[in-house]
Amino acid sequence: MVHPPSNTTHKGNKINTLYIKMPTLDSGDQYSVWVGLIYIFNLIVGTGALTLPAAFARAGWGLSTISLVFLAFMSFMNATYVIETMACANAVYKWKRLQFIKRNSISQCELEDPLVCGDTIPSRYYSLDRRVELGEMANLFLCKTGRSVFYCTLCHLL
């Protein structure tokens, strides 16, 4: 329902405002909680999880179980790789920040503890202090061709 415009003033200027009223839903038009949960599950997990019983029935228990374990392992490896790459990106940004501080001639007492103590590197150097997106990591670590391949692959998968 649209209400007619009303003339209001703001600091002496006339402004025409238009109010649009949203239609109300009857209680019969809403989904149940279970249907909402199924939609959310489908959105997060995808339709692949809903077809697993049919895949197990067609391929058999042995092959399906082996495939599922292999794909779970590959997913774990992929997540681990992304986390390690994000930690390396954080380390690069910390290194650049420390180089900037050193270039601006701040005295040694104002710097943080040294990053490298002997032959070991402290774990806080490779910590996840800052969220670095995949595109930002691609820009940081890949050349122009690699970035193009990354973005094309990302667009293809989406």
Automatic annotation (TrEMBL):
<dbReference type="GO" id="GO:0016020">
    <property type="term" value="C:membrane"/>
</dbReference>
<protein>
    <recommendedName>
        <fullName>Amino acid transporter transmembrane domain-containing protein</fullName>
    </recommendedName>
</protein>
<dbReference type="InterPro" id="IPR013057">
    <property type="entry name" value="AA_transpt_TM"/>
</dbReference>
<keyword id="KW-0812">Transmembrane</keyword>
<keyword id="KW-0325">Glycoprotein</keyword>
<keyword id="KW-1133">Transmembrane helix</keyword>
<comment type="similarity">
    <text>Belongs to the TMEM104 family.</text>
</comment>
<feature type="transmembrane region" description="Helical">
    <location>
        <begin position="31"/>
        <end position="56"/>
    </location>
</feature>
<feature type="domain" description="Amino acid transporter transmembrane">
    <location>
        <begin position="31"/>
        <end position="87"/>
    </location>
</feature>
<keyword id="KW-0472">Membrane</keyword>
<feature type="transmembrane region" description="Helical">
    <location>
        <begin position="68"/>
        <end position="93"/>
    </location>
</feature>
<dbReference type="Pfam" id="PF01490">
    <property type="entry name" value="Aa_trans"/>
</dbReference>
